[in-house]
Amino acid sequence: MLLPFLLALHAVTAVLLPWLVRVAGPRAFLLACLPPAATVVWVLSRAPEIVAGRPATSSIAWVPALGIDLDFRVDALALAMVLLVSGVGAVIFGYCARYFHTGERGIGRLAAVLVLFAGAMLGVVSTDNLFALFVFWELTSITSFLLIGNDDRKEQARRAATQALITTAGFGLPMLVGFILLGEIGGSYRISELVAAPPTASPWLPVALVLILAGAFAKSAQVPLHYWLPGAMVAPTPVSAYLHAAAMVKGGVYLIARLAPGFADVDPWRALVLTFGLATMLIGGWRALRQDDLKLLLAYGTVSQLGFLTLLAGAGTQVAAVAAIGALLAHGFFKSALFLTVGVIDHQAGTRSIGALSGLGRRMPVLAAAAALAAASMAGVPPMLGFVVKEAALEAFLPGHAAGMPPGAAAAVLTGVLLASILTFAYSARFVWGAFADKAAVSERRFPHPSAAFVAAPVSLAAVSLATGALAFLLDPLAQSYAAPFDAGGQPYHLALWHGPTPALGLSALVIAVGVLLFYRREGVARIQRAMPRWPDAETGYHLFVHATYAFALGVTRRLQSGSLPVYLGVILAMLLALPGARLVVVLVTGDVAAPGAGEGFRVWNSPLEGVVALLIVVTAVATVREHRRFPALILISAMGFGIAGLFALYGAPDLALTLVLVETLTTVILVFVLRRLPATFGTRPNGWGKRLTVLLCAATGTFIAVSLWLMTAARTDAPVSLGYAPRAHEAGGDNLVNLILADFRALDTFGEVVVLATAAIAVASLVLLNRRARVVEESGADPLEEEGAAGSDGEGDPAAGNGLAAGAGGTGADSGPAGEGDRS
Fold first, then answer.
1. Cα–Cα distance list, 710 to 331, 601, 640 (Å)
2. Phi, psi of 684, deg, nearest 5
3. pLDDT tens for each residue of 577-591
4. Measuring CA to CA, which residue among 657, 698, 612, 712 is closest to residue 604?
């Protein structure tokens, strides 16, 4: 399958785009169209067999030791999502070539991250592995954070990006726990296998599903986690059109739709999905009615539509599943067309405010017609695809089709869908009227007409909404393929523009009639909204949570970060004894681990000389603890280090022993210089419980480490990897294993250590020289380098040396350049 190659193509294109934007300007976005366009061409070429029930699959080894692979699987649901993610994405990338200006700040980075986001989203909808899904999922959160906060000079953009990241990525962590639970109880991390054979007997399954739904609700902006989506409208309009109409916010809906065939009947799945989806529909639609900013109106409308999509995707019936596929496509087409329309209006007229726009319908008739078609699809007006979907959604909750739901619950959901549909019609009409109608009280703005290439994207997407509505039967095989696992309860439902005079058709007519009335009574509705009490919204709750977390963290830090090194060490050692130490006691009591050398007798040493060296180490260690003077304590510590080096030499590691001797010697010399500036003696604590507790803690920790190391010598179950070092060493042309390990087997690690040590040496030398120079300046009141440079220039001494010193002085950050630069250094 070509899908891994297409994902790699997205990544390569993202790497090249910043340079291409610098060379070709915004026209480089046309190159960004190639990966998603190629993906659409490929998936359409495989569409007949995918719809026929033969998914396109591919697998790449990822973590073979754990049996984890990168599995990809494109079935009917993934096909619909790829058409949105890549098809609409390609159109939006072409739109960007006309939206942005040459030389505009940050568009190279924006283009790269946008393509990277498209690749991550493609991975989300095509992977068949829970771990890979999580990786792509979090990558979409990170890239959306960068896209929303693209203009990092604006505090509002930074705040909105952070808010979106905390919400979506934060709830991704419990979702990961849910994935692990689901994979463990199901015996597989392949999504297709889990859905085909769900582990319904496990008591942990409801917990896993609740955690997964939490992540899906956050990504798809379900109440009360919807606050981040309107705030994200600070992003450039093409970004909003892609993320919040065709791609990112669909991620949660896709995950719900992916798992629904296997888990919709497991409590509390259906209750959670229907409750949160319905609440999101109503709250988002009501908030959309009072927005003056066209983009915010669409944002709250998107929140409402996401509730509608979640409701259908998780309902778990055949009719709802058919409607869900149609709704996914319809929403992607009409909402991206409307967002791009707002981009054209804002780009040309310089405002998105309904109160400042008038007469645009006469001046931009083609754009107005496209927006009217897209808004009609959103409102559910025939013959648009939105009408086909709305009728299917109403049918899904009528008696006879709401299988698995109590009659009362189905009636409540149907009532909610009706109310939300009326609100949707009203704010759709408000959008068209606010953007394009003539308003007597508003003066018309002067602005240039948009080019045909600029309006091509919204016009083409609106035309697709119209064509797919009139030819809805072409989408029906795709919807039927996804809905096949659900029980149809009789005759399966099909997507079509005309089903005859059905109850759903009557309800659709009722929605349109009441929606028209609600639009014409918009002033009264506005008065009602203004008169309603302003309850604390969800964003207030988010800020309260963030500030409470920050305050709690500060309180914990103030209490735990006392500045006492003994306290810190005591806490660390106590936790070491409480967790692995307790486990060690259990192992010793139960006898789960055999003692080293069992059956061979206990061997104290290989040579009596080892006992002498060990006794020396013990004596110096005890003497160091009892010594109150700093310099003798340092000598005792050094003697203990040399004793350990002696043990290494006795065990046949002379290189390691020599290294330790050098380190101990250098450390002792350095500490001698440090001790010159410290008091001669340590501060001692009086005898008491504190001192006794310290002795007990240290003795217990030492015993734990000694016993653990002793048991570890018998814990090995496989042959040591070092057995293969000797023949490898001969192949490398050497006999000293230690040297070969450092120089060949772990050469990069050794090289890194050398670089770190060299950097530290340079830093220490610089600090010493700067400290010496500061003392000279303080004592003499003049810079010696400047004096020597001046002497060289006056002919006293060697002129060349004087010039060299002057050049060296000029190269320092504090003395070269203007005074301001020196101050900054």
1. 65, 14, 21
2. -105, 145
3. 888 888 888 877 777
4. 612
Q: What 3-state DSSP class applies to 751?
A: helix
CA distance 825 to 818: 11
- Note whether 317 and 404 are within 8 A (CB): yes
C-alpha 495/C-alpha 493 separation (Å) is 7
- Of 644, 628, 647, 624, which is closest to residue 636 (Cα–Cα)? 624
Q: How far is CA 129 from CA 56, 124, 188, in A?
A: 15, 10, 9
3-state DSSP: the chain helix, strand, coil percent, rounded to 5?
Answer: 75, 5, 25
Q: Is the pLDDT of residue 713 over 60?
A: yes
Q: What is the DSSP letter of 818?
A: -
The total number of residues shown for the chain amounts to 825
> What region does 793 belong to: left with phi over 0, alpha with psi -120 to 50, or beta?
alpha
Q: Omega before 383 cis (within 30°)?
A: yes
Neighbours of 593 (CB within 10 A): 13
**What is the arithmetic mean of pLDDT over 294-298?**
93
Beta bridge partners of 60: 70
Say how far apart CA 655 and CA 739 lie, in whole Å.
Answer: 8
Distance CA 423, CA 293 (A): 17
Q: Specify whether the CB–CB gap between 264 and 314 falls below 8 A.
A: yes
Q: How many angstroms separate the CA atoms of 416 and 264, rounded?
A: 20
25 dihedral zone (left: phi>0; alpha: psi -120 to 50; beta): left
Alpha helices in 289-396 (DSSP H): 294-314, 318-349, 360-363, 365-379, 385-396
Q: Rounded CA gap, 194 and 200, in Å? A: 10
DSSP characters for 235-304? S-HHHHHIIIIISTTHHHHHHHHHHHHHHTTSTTHHHHHHHHHHHHHHHHHHHHTT--BHHHHHHHHHHH
- The residues facing 71 across adjacent strands are 59
Residue 169 CA from chain centroid, whole number: 5
Instruction: Give the span between the Cα atoms of 468 and 620, in whole angstroms.
Output: 86
Which amino acid, 229?
L
Select from 303, 291, 356, 372 the least CA-distant residue to 331: 303
Residue for token pair 């003798």:
632
Q: What is the largest CA-CA distance in the chain?
A: 110
Q: What are the C-alpha distances in Å from 232 to residues 88, 323, 331, 369?
A: 20, 28, 19, 28
Give pLDDT tens digits for 675-699: 888 888 887 666 777 778 888 898 8
Q: How far is CA 207 from CA 177, 192, 203, 314, 345, in A?
A: 10, 20, 8, 17, 47
Helical (H) or strand (E) element with 74: strand 68-74
User: Across-strand partners of 68?
Assistant: 63
Tokens of 277: 């989806």
Handedness of CA 225, 230, 234, 235 (dihedral sign): positive
On whether the CB atoms of residues 320 and 396 are closer than 8 A, the answer is: yes
- Would you say 236 and 193 are in contact if contact means Cβ atoms under 8 Å apart? no
CA-based torsion, 262, 266, 268, 272: positive or negative: positive
C-alpha 816/C-alpha 807 separation (Å) is 10
- Distance in angstroms (rounded) separating the CA atoms of residues 428 and 595: 77
According to DSSP, residue 383 is labeled: T
CA atoms of 15 and 560, how far apart (whole Å): 44
Select from 341, 336, 494, 520 the least CA-distant residue to 426. 520
What is the percentage of the chain residues whose pLDDT exceeds 70? Answer: 91
In tens, the pLDDT along 814-824 reads 333 333 333 33
59 - beta bridge partners? Answer: 71
